[in-house]
Amino acid sequence: MRTLGVDLAAATKKTAVALLAWDGGDARLEHLALDVHDREIVELFGGSSMTGIDCPVGWPDAFLPFLAGHLNLDARPVLDHDGIEGRRLLAYRDTDRFVTAHTGLIPLSVSADRLAHPAMRCAVIQAKIAVEHGPQARDGSGRLAEVYPAAALKVWGLLARGYKGRGAPETERLGVILEHLKAAAPWLDFAGHEDRLAASDDLFDAVIASLTARAVALGQTLRPPASHAAAALTEGWIHVPSGGLAGLQDT
Known about the structure:
7-stranded mixed β-sheet, alpha/beta, 7 strands
């Protein structure tokens, strides 16, 4: 099994990928790259059993009718979202609210925050994958799953905050998290990339996305309950690990 992790950004220079090759209960970091173009992501997807992508794969179901109503001067679907609670339905998906309830973390809004531009790129990448490898269900039941590294780190008992950025405090925290990950997963061979991972939160998040992809492949993530199943197919579903790192060794 090979699992691919993608830390997707709007710009290629901030986009990272990590490919893990699994042999029994051991894993080796086979490929690690920054400044990644769509073509490489699609090619790596083709050779992977499961891909975890750190980016929303869809928008809130209420968002399109709201925009269409505004475009067509149809007041009804716009007025349905009057007030702060109505606007929250435009900003957050079912899966975002589910993750907050289960982890205490609040994912960024795909329609009202900094994720909007990367999500547009993600939609194009999904279309390119569909052309070459077939459409992938947005709920993660195919070979592509939306992941959230901060949530995975929290579930696995690792520091999930404060390591983003290029300042001394952030890089120091990232180095500490990496050491904790190495201690918690001695079966994971970083293939000499430790210095690169300690210096780049993008590369590190790609590795966490790849580990989460392994959890998805083994059925070790929180799946959409019946009440969220329909929305997960249209809006997407964030796969949060349901167990510890040791479970990823399950053969």
